[in-house]
Amino acid sequence: MFTQAQSDRGRQLFRDECSECHYSSEMRDNAFQYEWERRTVGDLLDHVSGSMPDDDPGSLTPQQYVDVIAYILGLNGFPTGTVELAPDAPGLATPLKSPGS
């Protein structure tokens, strides 16, 4: 679904672009999981790419948005694999319910 390298890139992007307003702990707490557990990875990507960063929504590249999503997936216990998540990947239909839930 995503690779460790992709998640690492996403972590750096999160630090550079998101951490002014968000903490990584927000992306894996109970409130986040409750809000997103009935949605898909694609829903999260659409939300983030359409509304973030708050001061310039849509300003990152599609790949950068997917990398941030990969980081968030990793925070929520989704396992890494050998193929990167792509902006148009079938993996976007994956439910966001954490594997350990």
How would you portray this structure in words?
The chain has 101 residues and is mainly alpha-helical. It has one domain (4-93). The chain contains four helices and no strands. Helix 1 (4-18) packs across helix 4 and helix 3 crosses helix 4 (62-75). It is globular and about 35 Å long. The model has no long low-confidence stretch (mean pLDDT 92).
How are the SSEs ordered, and which strands pair?
Elements: H1 4-18, H2 30-36, H3 41-51, H4 62-75
Helix pairs in contact: 1-4, 3-4
Give the N-terminus to C-terminus distance in angstroms.
Answer: 18 Å
Overall, the morphology is globular
Total helical elements:
4
Runs with pLDDT <50, length 5+?
A: none
Cα-based radius of gyration, to the nearest Å: 12 Å
How is the biggest beta sheet arranged?
Answer: none
Classify the secondary structure makeup into a structural class: mainly alpha
Helical fraction equals: 40-55%
Order of helices and strands: HHHH
Q: What is the mean predicted local confidence, pLDDT?
A: 92
Strand content: under 5%
Strands, total number: 0
Our count of domains comes out at: 1
Task: Give the structure's gist in a few sentences.
With 101 residues, the chain is mainly α.
What descriptive keywords fit this protein?
mainly alpha, 101 residues, globular
